[in-house]
Target: P-type Ca(2+) transporter
Amino acid sequence: MDTQPIRKWYTLAAADVTEALHSDAAQGLTQQEAERRLAKHGANQLAENKRKPLYAVFLDQFKDFMVLILFIATLISYFLGEYLDAITIIAIIIINGILGFIQEAKAERSLQALKELASPMARVIREGQISMIPASRLVPGDLVVLEAGDRVPADMRLLTANRLEIEESALTGESVPVAKNVKKLDTAQASTVPLGDQKNLAFMGTMVTGGTGSGIVVATGMDTEIGKIAHMMNAAEEVETPLQARLEQMGKILVVVALLLTIVVIVAGVWHGHELFTMFLAGVSLAVAAIPEGLPAIVTVALALGVQRMIRRNAIVRKLPSVETLGCASVICSDKTGTLTQNKMTVTHVWHSDSTYEVTGSGYVPEGAFHYQGKMVSPTRDGALTQIIRIADRCNNARLICEEQGTRNLLGMGKTTRHWQIVGDPTEGALKVLAAKATGHAGERGNPKQQSVRVEELPFDSDRKMMSVVEKGADGVHSLLTKGAAEAVLARSTHILWGGQLQPLTASLRHRVLEQTELMAGQALRVLGFAYKTLQGYRPGQPIGTLENNLVFVGLVGMIDPPREEVRSAINLCHQAGIKTVMITGDHKVTAEAIARQIGMMRGYGEVLEGRELDGMSDEALAEHAERVTVYARVSPEHKLRIVRALQSKGHVVAMTGDGVNDAPAIKTSDIGIAMGITGTDVTKEAADLVLRDDNFATIVAAVEEGRNIYDNIRKFIRYLLASNVGEILVMFFAMLLGLPLPLVPIQILWVNLVTDGLPAMALGVDQAEADTMYQRPRNKAENIFGRGLGWKIISRGFLIGAMTLLAFWLTLRENPNDLVHAQTVAFVTLVMAQLIHVFDCRSQYSVFHRNVFENKYLVWAVISSLVLVIGVVYIDALQPIFKTTDLSLRDWALILVTSGVPTFVAGIGGVLASGRSQAGREKRSAMRTVRPD
Ligand code: ATP
Model:
């Protein structure tokens, strides 16, 4: 088999390509052959830069500025003969490095898993079955189907091209889409054909902008045209979130502050008669204490783990910074079909000539009857009904398939259950089921010789809102069968089949049809119109506009698409959380409004705006309206962009969903672009920040909730780490200013800072959300991370921790002025305990009493392990000389517990009082809100 990339595939006829690649233009490859080829050719991927090896990640932990200072301190200790200090500092640096390494490796792993989840898929036919597989598993010879919105997954020779247009700017720089065909190119000019003119090939990485097609894969991975030019594709860039960038900046300021403080402490210490070396080490330790070196790593871990939680709730984050923006979302604009509704359509009504038929049955099971005025009737009883059913069946790309599953009962008796499924668009699936109910056949039927064949398809798009097929009958006559949005089809019709007669479509008949459409739409039905015409002098490839006109309207079909069960409560949650919900749909105004009412979106004050009304509005007028509109109906994807801009101009942070290729601009412009995982096109997914694995609205709300939680958790451990650092600095600072002996020895400061703090901070990063997370208004995007009182909490709690530690030290020293080691041990343990108690306070923005202490198991274990470590350092004989500690008595412990508890409990009582006041305020505000809805 020859699959060399140099081969000029465009010079071969489609059949020759299929043969050369030992494939099959109808069945594709067998699974087994595909596996064999995959092993031979490798994955269909562009080579990425190598990932950083683990040892490099480990070494990176020691590149820090703070670690550098510590190394210098170690060297100085070593040269001054303080070997024990030098070794201990090194040991602490290594333990800290290992902790950092574990965190980073964990974050890296989950982000890698995320990348794999978001990788592209391809529609492939193998053994005659169509399925979606990861594009990386494609092999030469695979038969691939292309649709508008797909990114072409490999280089392909096209076998079919139905108005297929591909935008190849990734490869050729030319942004005007190229119309593709399947004709082989003239061999004479073969050697000079540039890529842009190889019209029968589709190239990896280019984008299908319209039509449909299929082709045989001729090259994969680095053998493709894009592989040849992009020899090395950089692994997706690591983007820093705005918060990470801000924290990095803050880190720089803290370095300067730390150095200044260090100098003050050293000078004050030496002034009061302390040894220069001791003061130097103390200064260095303090500098280390002041720099929150653990912060960036923990932020990354908190983001990565949060993102993992989102995956578990079916939301895949494509762009990390959006995790922060999610919590600020103030409007969620959502598609209707499939996101708010189940996208499980069932036809319930058929109407023509003022006669309404009801169709029974549910789901995709092709069993049901037609009723007219309460009586069962034959679906072939009149010509118009038969014609509607014919169009429903033929102007359709969906397939109805039946899977049989055999089960055996306890007695070993076999039973077969049949499970009906739809492959393709659910709207079309429902029409296939309707046709099957009418004819009693679920698949192809009749004598193929007598059947008409499809010559061409004018694919559905959401601007025209209709689809047609051209068929050639057994008699050689061409006809056009059309279905689509009722008004759209009606607008292109000039005649109507009314009471069995072909009649001109008069204004009153037109009005009658529209009236009926509204009536059905008012029952939350999706209403489609059906029409046909006989084509005279048909030529293939004629412009769509010249075909879809002068139609004969036949009738209407109404189908239900029930709302998703979980959507109602998700919308309720949004309202509680101060998030406005908006429906944007291509569907009929009345259908959209009826569904919006069912799911609790129209809270009595929502307006409905149609696409054509929107067209007549200036941007300013739209911005004014946008505040009140709840449902946008009959809109095209282009309208979505204007809606996003209008809402943004009013200060909203907008989340916008989309699936089709034309939705990409709106998704990109919105603050949080959301793509559908199941029905979404590659182009939309690539533009999106978030992909919904289940296309479900409730998943967006879950992601917002997680987004809020992640941000809150980041605030929690920033608060914990910084308050701890402030406490450590202040205890030393005050002691020096008051002329006291050193309350903590340098090794103890390092230990507290690098070892005891780390685990509890990490555990805060995965803390459960506070009960009222979704009862708060969305956060302001410009809010400072220290906003809403966080800065004050850090300083006040830090001050109390420092002051209480110093008090415990001073009381112990006063009792026994000759035993400095004892007093220092008490100060050391008080500091550790105060922080370990304070960590529980950090879980709540109100007070420690607002939350169950044992809820976060990781935190409980982290605190226990930090406690065990500190007890070890105090009581193990061998460690006492290293950490300059001594055994503590019960009396010491009593003092420690009282002093270390004060910062948290004093603040806790304050918090309870304050939250009581704000609760009363909230109740008052909410009472006012109920009077005047926002
Ligand atoms: P949403 O935008 O919420 O997903 P939608 O699915 O109704 O709603 P579109 O896909 O743009 O939006 O469809 C617009 C209209 O086009 C539908 O209301 C329906 O009348 C019609 N329509 C939808 N699918 C088809 C199809 N396969 N063939 C013909 N007409 C269709």
Q: What stands out?
A: Residues 335-337, 425, 427-428, 460, 462, 465-467, 483-485, 526, 528, 585-587 surround adenosine-5'-triphosphate (CB under 6 Å). The domain at 9-44+120-229 is CATH 2.70.150.10 (Calcium-transporting ATPase, cytoplasmic transduction domain A). The longest helix spans residues 890-931. The chain has four domains: 9-44+120-229, 54-110+241-314+703-929, 321-341+563-695, 354-405+415-539.
